[in-house]
Design a protein that fits this description.
The protein has one helix and 13 strands. It is mostly beta strands. It has two domains: about 5-45, no CATH class; about 75-145, RNA polymerase II/Efflux pump adaptor protein, barrel-sandwich hybrid domain (OB fold (Dihydrolipoamide Acetyltransferase, E2P), Beta Barrel), CATH 2.40.50.100. The strands form four sheets. A four-stranded antiparallel beta sheet has the order 4-13-11-8, with no helix packed on it. A four-stranded antiparallel beta sheet has the order 10-9-5-12, with no helix packed on it. A three-stranded antiparallel beta sheet has the order 1-2-3, covered by helices on one side. The longest helix is centred in the N-terminal third of the chain and has 11 residues, at about 5-15.
């Protein structure tokens, strides 16, 4: 895959909000801006400069709202630190709602480029909700687990 159109097609087909591709000294960034009534992707091609998102992945500072716009979720939201495939496994076991976890314990794994990346609990707590489906593609900074 090496043309802008091929990347744009994959971007749209997977419903991504951001995609970054680096090839040597070139970088391609495709991004959908979250604007009401607008659903356009912006694309830019740059040299070696790297633009990182300003927020760190991890625990959200505020409760997230359900996708349907209903009441806010109670607890801390654990966010995906990278784009990849979600697996509800950590420390060699499948994590389920109601499981007690300790700070630093793996609560899930995100597979990216054949590498398994563990996501750890920021504090002691109980898994209140798992927001991502097993084997689903998750995006950078997407809400994946609610920790109460």
């Amino acid at each position: 895959m090496n043309t802008l159109q091929e990347y744009a097609d994959v971007f749209e087909r997977l419903g991504l909000t951001e995609l970054q591709v680096e090839d040597g000294e070139r970088k391609l960034v495709l991004r959908k801006e979250p604007c009401a009534g607008r659903n356009a992707a912006s694309a830019k091609s740059e040299g070696t400069a790297v633009t990182e998102p300003s927020e760190e992945a991890g625990v959200a500072a505020r409760p997230a709202e359900a996708e349907t716009g209903s009441a806010p979720r109670q607890g801390d939201i654990i966010k995906a630190p990278l784009l990849g495939i979600f697996h509800a496994t950590g420390n060699g076991r499948t994590v389920s709602v109601g499981d007690h976890v300790s700070r630093g314990e793996a609560v899930c794994t995100i597979e990216a480029m054949k590498m398994m990346n563990e996501v750890t609990a920021p504090r002691d707590g109980v898994i209140a909700e798992i927001l991502a489906d097993e084997g689903a593609l998750v995006e950078y900074h997407q809400d994946i687990i609610v920790l109460s």
